[in-house]
Design brief:
Layout: E1 2-7, E2 10-13, E3 18-26, E4 28-39, E5 46-51, E6 57-59, E7 67-72, E8 77-82, E9 91-101, E10 106-110, E11 114-119
Parallel strand pairs: 2-11
Antiparallel strand pairs: 1-3, 3-8, 4-5, 4-9, 5-6, 7-8, 9-10, 9-11
Length: 120
């Protein structure tokens, strides 16, 4: 079994910054791409940023130039540095990844979500 534990959300004023972390633990052999999604009230969950195991990244147009995704493969952890936050960034942020277990099984996992609130 694999668990994803997120941290780093909170309340910040517009223009401020936050850094989210998501650590994977459990019977992990290797981790595929890691990603951050977000879901605002009344809206569908959307991809924010994604990083492959080799470090290639892609971002939603709405966050390009403001957010940076990174990962520490030794710690099985993905980060999301969020700068110049705006009220429209307010949402619950979820990390997501695909994991190969030591038994050879593959599963897709989600974190529990962390609230990010940006006040104007």
């Amino acid at each position: 079994q694999v668990q994803l534990v997120e941290s780093g959300g909170g309340l910040v004023q517009a223009g401020g910054s936050l850094r989210l972390s998501c650590a994977a633990s459990g019977t992990i052999f290797s981790i595929n791409a890691m990603a951050w999604y977000r879901q605002a009230p009344g809206k569908q969950r959307e991809l924010v940023a994604r990083i492959t195991s080799g470090g290639s990244t892609n971002y939603a147009d709405s966050v390009k130039g403001r957010f940076t995704i990174s990962r520490d493969n030794a710690k099985n952890t993905v980060y999301l540095q969020m700068n110049s936050l705006q009220p429209e960034d307010t949402a619950v942020y979820y990390c997501n990844t695909g994991v190969f277990s030591q038994r050879g099984d593959y599963g897709v996992y989600w974190g529990q979500g962390t609230q990010v609130t940006v006040s104007s």
